[in-house]
Amino acid sequence: MKLGAFRNKRDHYLDFWDVVTYVSLALFAILLVYPVVRLVMASFMTQAGTFAAGEEFSMIQTYVEFFTIRYYYQTMINSFVASLLATLFAVIIGVPVAYLIYRIDIPGKLLVRVAIVLTFVSPPFIGAYAWVLLLGRAGVLTGFFANLGITLPSIYGWRGIVLVFTLQAFPFVFLLVSSGLRSVDQSLEDAAINMGRSSFGVFRTVILPLIVPSISTGALLVFVTTFSDFGTPMIIGEGFRVLATLVYTEFVNEFGGNPRVASTLAILMLSVTVGALLIQRYFAAKSSFGQEAVTPLGIRWVSTPKRIISSIIVYGIVFAAMLPTLTIIVSSFLESRGPMLIARFSLDGYRTAARLPLAFRNSVIFVFVSTVLCVVAGTLMGYIVARRKNRLTAVIDTLSMTPYAVAGLVLGVALSISFGGAPFYLSGTALILIMSFFVRRLPYSVRSVSGLLYQMGPHTEEASVNLGVPPGRTFLRVTLPQITPAVLSGSLLTMATIAREFNSTVILYSGRTRTLPVEVFVQVLQGNFGSASVVGTVLILLTLVPIVVLFKVFGKDEQALL
To answer: Torsions phi, psi of 153, nearest 5?
Structure first.
């Protein structure tokens, strides 16, 4: 009798979470797999929406044209050049900054970490716009040095793109390397020093090999982020075309656009980002040592001159990275006349920002709704990934990571092709934007919850079910209170990243659903730099608030952003 009762309860437990599993698979099938499949199909179709056939329209014609017509394949080369250079420079400055902050007693270390986090959460294209204010043809620094008889290099073109990419993306390397350094045991360094190694020799032969997986992961994130970035090249690229801007211009064209070409370019972009992810995972697995620190690396004593030099290096790099954000905030309080900013304090920009309220309201609503959906779905998915290990949940685990490799611009094109026209007609609606935000940022909640559950045993939950409490009620009363910190921290990070989402939004929005990032971009393109600064400042604050709560209330540090 008891065995039969246990089986009935166990079957009920399985049935409940099986429903969650199937619903999760359905969500990914509808919002991720189906749009990507439609995107692939669209790349083989004619303008009329039929599959290409015959001699005039070969099914692979667009792909052949891409690799044979210089206008197209040069954009791929340009994208690789800009992204690889940015990745290289981000590693060159990110690794030393992480090591110096972690190992050297630099004054104001907390302030430096906060500045790097602010750079990390700021919308990427804002840096490009700020550098135009500083180093553009009528920029503040350009004019200042011109009066001294010094001509600064132009911010426009590939050099400016690489500069902005590097300063915006090096926090990826900083965060990953900082995390990697925490896993290195102090005894390894002590043993190397006792054997006569110099400080640099210890770093090169002992510490560096151990953090290679962290460096490679940071480099991957820099490459994928910069390769798929659309706003920065659009603002300062001028004649330097990259794949992301070409996807946008081909899809959103004043003469009707070319979905087939845009889809082909989006598929090529997706292939590059997914390929980079696979290469990095293989490389990280080959170079991983699986170490765990009993006594993490501590602060190293260095002479006063070395400490001063280290501080200058760190503060110099962080100041350069923070300068765009500071520029936007300061310029929002200046008088403006179109593209001209006047050095007089004024609040007129905030009082006369007629389009700010709608963009702010849309952003707040979309962020709130998308975050709630991500938290609910992500918590349930995180649970089944960690507790219900089988083939289906393994598929869910893989699919939950896939949005990391799908560029926002690619997802925006895919969703527009899939749901923008007949029979759904969701183009420009709030629903399609929320769908995009949901699937793009769902991984944060899934990873946050599953990561904590992997560290917790299932015995309490199993005891509750065996005592007759239904699995749903067990989850609500037993499991959920235990994982609440992970749920809340994941939700705050989701809010911050959704608020800054731009690449997918710029494809999907309409006039009535524009958000703060889109409004900044539109104002920049129209030359209204004062208005752009006002909206940009509000966007920075909206993005920063969840991060401040995450750090202050939950006692997290910058590692929570990983």
So the answer is: -60, 150
- Strands (DSSP E) contained in 245-388 are 334-337, 340-345
Amino acid in the structure at residue 129: Y
pLDDT for 535-551, tens place per residue? 999 998 888 888 777 77
CB 367, CB 498: distance < 8 Å: yes
* Confidence (pLDDT) at 49: 52
Neighbours of 337 (CB within 10 A): 10
Distances (CA, A) of 423 to 47, 225, 420, 426: 18, 33, 8, 9
The model carries a pTM of 0.85
Distance CA 60, CA 35 (A): 20
Q: What are phi and psi for residue 332, nearest 5 degrees? A: -70, -20
Q: Between vectors from CA 210 to CA 204 and to CA 211, what angle results, nearest 5°? A: 90
Per-residue model confidence (pLDDT) at position 278: 81
Q: What is the pLDDT of residue 57?
A: 46
Distance (Å, whole) CA 498 – CA 495: 5
User: 315-368, pLDDT tens digit by residue?
Assistant: 999 999 998 888 889 988 988 776 677 778 888 888 888 889 999 999 999 999
The reply to whether domains 1-39+353-562 and 43-179+212-280+314-331 share a CATH topology is yes
Residues in the chain: 562
The Cα 124–Cα 164 span in angstroms is 9
Pick the CATH number of 43-179+212-280+314-331 from 2.40.30.10, 1.20.5.170, 3.55.50.30, 1.10.3720.10: 1.10.3720.10
Residue 291, pLDDT score: 56
The CA radius of gyration of the chain, in Å to the nearest whole number, is 25
CATH fold of 1-39+353-562 reads: MetI-like fold (1.10.3720)
Q: 546: cis peptide before it, omega within 30°?
A: no
Q: At what angle do helices 259-287 and 70-103 cross, to 10 degrees?
A: 40
Neighbours of 347 (CB within 10 A): 11
Residue 178 to residue 85: CA distance in whole angstroms: 22
DSSP assignment of 490-556 equals HHHHHHHHHHT--TTHHHH--GGG--HHHHHHHHHHTT-HHHHHHHHHHHHHHHHHHHHHHHHHH--
Main-chain dihedrals φ then ψ at residue 304, nearest 5 degrees: -60, -45
Provide the 10 A C-beta neighbour count for residue 510. 12
- Rounded Cα distance between 432 and 420, Å, is 8
Distance CA 90, CA 87 (A): 5
Domain coordinates in residue numbering, the chain: 1-39+353-562, 43-179+212-280+314-331
Secondary structure E strands in 411-485: none
